[in-house]
Amino acid sequence: MAVRFIGIAPNTGDDECPTVWYDDEADEIVVQGWKANEKLRAKCLETGSIPNTEDAVRLPARIVPILRKACDVAEGTDVR
């Protein structure tokens, strides 16, 4: 597996570490975020089920530019 680090949320402290990677082999964007609390998870479940192999995670809005970069990498439009 060739996992490429894309970025970590700006202003990340010791207890905050939302991070984004891109997996070249699987052609997938991988994210690390905070686990959704039960209230948020319940709201998400209003639109459909969440399989046991998946879960809802929270990411801060400040990570949007890093997600855009990951999308560029996934689409092959990333210019280094």
Description:
This protein has one domain. The protein has 80 residues and is of the alpha+beta class. The model has no long low-confidence stretch (mean pLDDT 90). The strands form two sheets. It has a three-stranded antiparallel beta sheet, covered by helices on one side. The chain has a two-stranded antiparallel sheet with strand order 4-5. The protein is built from two helices and five strands, in the order ββββαβα. It is globular, with a radius of gyration of 14 Å. A hairpin with a 4-residue loop joins strand 2 and strand 3.
How would a crystallographer describe the biggest sheet?
3 strands, antiparallel
Q: Tell me the distance between the termini.
A: 21 Å
> Into which percentage range does the β-strand content fall?
25-35%
Count of distinct strands: 5
The arrangement of helices and strands along the chain is EEEEHEH
- State the helix count: 2
Overall shape: globular
**Tally of domains:** 1
By secondary-structure content and strand pairing, the structural class works out as: alpha+beta
Low-confidence stretches: none
Overall pLDDT: 90
Q: How large is the radius of gyration?
A: 14 Å
Helix content: 25-40%
**Sequence of strands across the biggest β-sheet:** 1-2-3
Short structural summary:
By secondary structure, the chain is α+β, with helices and mostly antiparallel strands. The protein is 25% helix and 25% strand. It has helices spanning 38-45, 64-75, and strands at 3-8, 19-23, 28-32, 34-35, 57-58.
